[in-house]
Input
Amino acid sequence: MEVDLLMSIIEQYGYLAIFFLLWLGIVGLPIPDELVVATAGFLVSIHLLDPYYALLVSYLGVASGLTIGFLLGKYFGKPILGWLSKKEKMRSKVERSTALLEKYGTTALCISYLFPVVRHLVPYLVAMGGMTYRRYALLSYPIGLIWTVAFYLLGYVFGKNVGMIVEMIRSYGAYTLLCLVVILAAILLVRKRITAVSRQKGE
Output
């Protein structure tokens, strides 16, 4: 149902809907970021969106969310963290994010993309810890681009099944995403090979 709802919203409001749905994800919009990006990829596959604009706007939405998360952590980190920790569902996510930082240091920024919600909390924590914006940008934005492209392509290839796939990734984690990315790469390579052979025959 979420995919149908997202399709309806994006079809009605276009690229702005993609951007703001991702931008609002940082403040707890109850629609997974993965699903928004994957739905954009699906709509591209059925020719309802331009592939380049859809990918660009998706990445800008993700990058804006990352930026807001860092700035909120820098200037309002402690009150926000205290408020989040009072919520039972969020407390475990805060603890997990903190443990990730303690174990992996700044590398946790990269690892956090594999975990829903945690990737939104880590920017708060690193900003509170005194990380400079320059270092944060150098670490988070390239990984954010890779993450965006991965889910965009998953939506493009797997179509309306993206809702089920995103749920699997959120439930079973990094290994599921890795397997799907490998399958995705294989499908794209086979498609490319078939297209090349077809062109050669046509000549």
User: Anything to note?
Assistant: The chain has a mean pLDDT of 79. The CA atoms of residues 43 and 100 lie 35 Å apart. DSSP finds ten helices and no strands in the chain.
